[in-house]
């Protein structure tokens, strides 16, 4: 193992190379693993936590705690891990005495358990070290470079265990308001051939970003998991989750309404290739898989443990206001027929990097759909 020497506030600290810490958890993984296990976490020092949602970034008042994040520029406390700094580590890692630690990347080993409960944390550290002396801190979100690292807690699992692990990973996210969704969609659904436009989900039309609104030919925010299926509305939560919100022509959005998904029906005006009948909607071939994977994401992300309904996919097209949507057998078929394309993959990356900081696992690992639903 390659080791480097780093001196912080006069104290010699052993620092391992980046390669040596490849097995360490990211901060996002640690946030999702608050079960008392002992683990090593790698992240950037971003401040001193003083309360559940308060982190000082200067003018530090104590050496007893620090906050870690996957980005040196992170300011959202929901994406920070609060780390206890016990007496033996304060000389080298207390921020009041070592303000130059800000933006440095460190590795901490300890117990993953809430700090300023219920905020996720790491307590009773047994080791603290510099991760890569001399490295320049990242100014953006953690490179997915390893998407594998993001899903580490799900590795080797299948069925119900896989679903549970994925839920624990993707529920760690930034929540945005319904107003913020407008700007998010202008980014995530941008036309690759025209940066001034977005691509509408069902109609496939390229339309000016500026024409969002409520007019007949404007585009608005389509809830792919219809918000009445669970009655979650547009309050911050599933009703504002960009992983299933897409731009769509106002009248086409209305034609889809809150119908479940199934094959067949009559042609939908302004949406070539789409079909609809009294109880179901069929999207055009190019986005059938996209729709399926958005529905799968919602079912795994929202399991009823955070104040929102437990969303589930079933094989019915008569779900009404129940937190259910179908038709599972058809969605699985669409998922297989229409694998993730470049547009869908870019969308997943933009949501992760710029908006919610979580991912749709069925875009990254299409095979997991079969493992969970057969």
Q: What topology emerges from the helices and strands here?
A:
Elements: E1 3-8, E2 11-16, H1 27-31, E3 38-51, E4 54-56, E5 65-69, E6 81-84, H2 90-93, E7 105-112, E8 121-130, H3 147-150, H4 159-170, H5 178-188, E9 190-191, E10 194-199, E11 206-208, E12 219-223, E13 245-249, H6 250-256, E14 260-261, E15 266-268, E16 271-276, E17 280-282, H7 288-301, E18 312-313, E19 324-325, H8 328-337, H9 342-355, H10 361-364, H11 367-373
Helix pairs in contact: 4-11, 7-8
Defining traits:
5-stranded mixed barrel, 11 helices, 25% helix, 4-stranded mixed sheet, disordered N terminus, 374 residues, alpha+beta
What does this structure look like?
By secondary structure, the protein is α+β, with helices and mostly antiparallel strands. Helix content is 25%, strand content 25%. The chain contains eleven helices and 19 strands. It has a five-stranded mixed barrel with strand order 3-5-6-8-7. It has a four-stranded mixed beta sheet with strand order 14-17-16-15, with helices on one face. It has a three-stranded antiparallel beta sheet with strand order 9-10-11. Strand 7 and strand 8 form a beta hairpin.
Provide a quick synopsis of the model:
The protein has a five-stranded mixed β-barrel. It has eleven helices and 19 strands.
